[in-house]
Amino acid sequence: MPNHPVSSPNDEATIRVRVRRFDPQTNGQPPYWQDFQVPRGRVARLLDVLQYLQQEDPTIATRPHFCRDLVCNGCYVNYNGKPRMSCMTPLNARVTDITLEPLQGYRVIRDLVVDFLDKTCGNSAAEDEAGV
Amino acid sequence: MLSTVAQVKTDVLIIGSGAAGARAAIEAAEFTAAVTLAAKGAPRRSGTTNLAGVHYAAALGHADEDTPWEHFHDTIVEARWLADQELARVMCLHGPKSVHDLERYGLHWYRTPDGTHYKQLPAPGHSFNRGVHYNGKTGKMVQDALIDEVKRHPNIHLLGDVFITQILVDDSGVVGAVGIHLERGELLAISTRSVVIATGGAGMVFKVTDMETGSTGDGIAMAFRAGADLIAPEMHQFFPTAFVWPETLRGVAVNSSQLWKLGLRLYNANDERFMERYYPEQKEHMPRDILSQCIFREITEGRGAEHGGVWLDTRWIEEFETLRRDRPRSYIWPEKLGVNVQRIEVAPTYHFTLGGIRINTEAETTIPGLYAAGEVVGATHGANRLAGNALTECLVFGEIAGRNAALRALSTTARPAPEAMVRAECQRLRGVLPETGTGRRPRAIYDDLRHAMYHNVGIVRDGRRLRAAVRRVAELREEVRSVQLTNTQHYNVEWIWALELDGMLELADLFATGAEMRTESRGAHYREDYPLLDNENWLKNILVRREGKRHVYWTEPVTLPYLSEVKMRYAEPSR
Most buried in the list B127, B172, B206, B413, measured by CB within 10 Å? Predict the structure, then answer.
């Protein structure tokens, strides 16, 4: 069995999450990074982090629709530089820093939302690597 | 906000890119119609079709002597005789053909070892082995095959991230639609004479559900606003076994249809195999509605385990280890989050919206030019749906809706969407998405609504709690007028929640009111204050329609054109 990923709710530890923010439709405003502290006890997998951020700061764009059950492939993001299906990414106790960027290989709509119908690279190498 | 309006022209507008919508698009395109297939999320990666479990019910008779008529018989009996027999008959007779359609689109179903026949699996409530499948990925494979086929048609315009908010209707029927282009924050005025609603169910109206998080019933609410009849608003199916722990998995179904057959057992906190008490003979081998009620009763009467569930014990299943390796998503993955799959704590989760838009066998709603297909439709499954019948319904009625929508579009002249109606919808949207609201944020109201509905209009109901739910919904509807929203035009997630919430509040009121009207217990609808089935007074459906601002409810007797001798298959649980 892997490490038990769920900390006790009393655990005050936090995970530092850096999020790449960008709105391509706002001319002149370049991409920037924003930092968040996410309570460990609230997140068992990466999908929980996305939901937590969206509720804490509703100005962030993440896709609000997902299956939570490892099939839809709609919750993909770049996690520490690599494409990951966020519902399939457990966060064990060793995780202290997370960097989130929109999934590579697709046109960015805003922040972590990409247009899955608009691939920017010829093949979906990013996802092939992740085993989609 | 929403100051620009873009014009879109299409023969057929299809709302929703799941199984029913995608199938409708293919059919309409084959009839040469120009089709716009609009989804509020990312097509292929959104909707509940992906989540459909193992079974696709179709009486091919590859495993035994099954026939479509036997399928029809099972569907009606398990529906507790409340299903529309005409709709169920079409679903069952067309089911086998739809299996072949999917194979033509590229879905290679599991076959017998010699490759000559489809493999067909057993499931509770089905008298024969009826479930064709692609192991644990059936729904995903159906969705993929359909979107692949959609992309082969140059006359289908696939449009993601567009939230359709209103169907425009005049005396002649459908004349257009209005939506929001979420990325640009711009209004779309769509001119069309044919609209197919295929937006799926409304699981998100309830706090615990295994549906995709976009299943907010938008299409049912939209049809109701446009003046279409809805049927069976009180009927909502719960799936008996879903994770209750860890929190991140709460509501996710433990796919167990096959486990029943293999010998799964349920235990309460006292280690009692409680189904023996309710049904000494059948034990756990009971349909979804009865299992859900028995499990819920164990939990509410204080015999629930640590996290408020009961134990699903797989240790009695000899083949479990094989099944576990065969279905890593269901039985190996949860171990990474701390679940012990030999003994899983489970409780019922909202699974399927049995009620919805009323259609006839041509997939026509009561509004000319407005069609509906899939879970968004009501009465196909009556008071309880059989495993595997959901996908079949989507494919069968998607095909019919797509064909009829195309034929109407090709034989009528399109006009631009009437400007006054577009302006009126723009005005309505300003109320749903207020610019200067100072109240709570949409997500908070959304969560409150889901909590109230799960506890008051869930598996076990009574008049007092149903009336409380109606009152609570009215309060929340008042509150939502001053909802506070993020100020951005571009992919504003709070807009999505506010738009969804608008429809959910509309539906919640109908669901609770309908449930209060039905003063008996039948299938998925269980009233503590009316615990008995009442064929004398309630072999009928509840319908509702909007006339101006009024909601008009009425009942209609179930017609029994094919099977007329009403016999129940199970005794109701001893109360």
Answer: B206
